[in-house]
Amino acid sequence: PRHGGTAVAEAILGSRPAEEARLLAQRVAALGAVAVVGVEAGGKQQLIVARGDGLAVDAGKVVRETVTPLGGRGGGKPDLAQAGGPDADTLARAVSEATRLVATMLGTGT
Predict the structure, then answer these.
(1) Stretch 42-52: mean pLDDT, rounded?
(2) What is the pTM assigned to this prediction?
(3) ∠ at Cα 103 (99, 104), nearest 5°?
(4) Closest C-alpha to 11, from 43, 52, 40
(5) Beta-ladder partners of 12
(6) CA distance linking residue 35 with residue 52, whole number of Å
(7) Distance between CA 43 and CA 98 in Å, rounded?
(8) What percentage of the chain reaches a pLDDT higher than 90?
(9) Residue 11: what are its φ and ψ, rounded to 5°?
(10) 33 close to 6: Cβ distance less than 8 angstroms
(11) Fewer CB under 10 Å: which end of the chain, C or N?
(12) In the chain, count of helices (H) and strands (E)?
């Protein structure tokens, strides 16, 4: 979907290496978009958020605000951040919440 004219890609990849998910998110972001990717890596759930240059999204803030209430930890830079949590049941909720926060930062969320 698009939020404020910016494409936001959301995906849950299943069981993949975290590095693969991070590279995918970075490639999507390089196209001027925001990527919100959930992945199970090494028995842990990972949330990765990446944004293109000049977009009003702080990926580090998105992952911190998303996973802390779910019992996870993480952080990163404004353009790329990663967080993890122990509970597979919360991954879809984390991806959805992160996408909602991204939409809010882009000025289109509720």
Answers:
(1) 91
(2) 0.92
(3) 115
(4) 40
(5) 38
(6) 9
(7) 21
(8) 64
(9) -150, 150
(10) yes
(11) C
(12) 3, 6
